[in-house]
């Protein structure tokens, strides 16, 4: 399914990042195993290979969103979405 096949309301909107504590239970996904400590640091690759991002964060995010829209999954389980919970979390931001 491509962008032209998606419901219009899926293609409009705003990306809002919330701290995990503010997410409704239905939206929390613990995808990492926190039973071990993990440290992520890119200073070595930056120092040794002179690495830096090629795009500003906002542009990279926009390109990612465009790619996701153009490469929509073939099958979407509507049970994985709880729009009432999402709306409540966003409404709590404005209180």
| Order of H and E elements | HHH
Beta-strand content: under 5%
In the predicted model, the low-confidence regions spanning at least 5 consecutive residues are none
Write down the oligomeric state: single chain
Tell me the number of helical segments per DSSP (H or I, 4 or more residues long).
Answer: 3
Number of strands: 0
In round numbers, the mean pLDDT is 79
Major β-sheet profile? none
User: How far apart lie the N and C ends?
Assistant: 37 Å
| Coarse shape | extended
In helices, the fraction of residues equals 25-40%
Q: Rg to the nearest angstrom?
A: 18 Å
| Class inferred from helices and paired strands | mainly alpha
Please specify the SSE layout and strand pairing.
Layout: H1 43-49, H2 57-70, H3 83-93
Protein described:
This protein is mostly helical. It has a domain at 1-9 and 41-73. The protein is built from 3 helices and no strands. It has helices at residues 43-49, 57-70, 83-93. The longest helix is centred in the last third of the chain and has 14 residues, at 57-70. The mean pLDDT is 79.
Compose a concise summary of this entry.
The protein is mainly alpha-helical. 34% of the residues lie in helices and 0% in strands.
List keywords for this structure.
mainly alpha, 95 residues, 34% helix
């Amino acid at each position: 399914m491509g962008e032209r096949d998606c419901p219009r309301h899926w293609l409009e909107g705003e990306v809002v990042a919330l701290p995990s504590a503010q997410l409704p239970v239905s939206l929390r996904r613990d995808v990492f195993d926190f039973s071990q400590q993990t440290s992520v640091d890119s200073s070595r690759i930056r120092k040794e290979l002179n690495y830096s991002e090629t795009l500003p964060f906002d542009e990279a995010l926009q390109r990612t969103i465009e790619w996701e829209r153009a490469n929509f999954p073939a099958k979407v389980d509507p049970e994985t979405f709880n729009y009432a919970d999402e709306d409540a979390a966003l409404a709590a931001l404005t209180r």
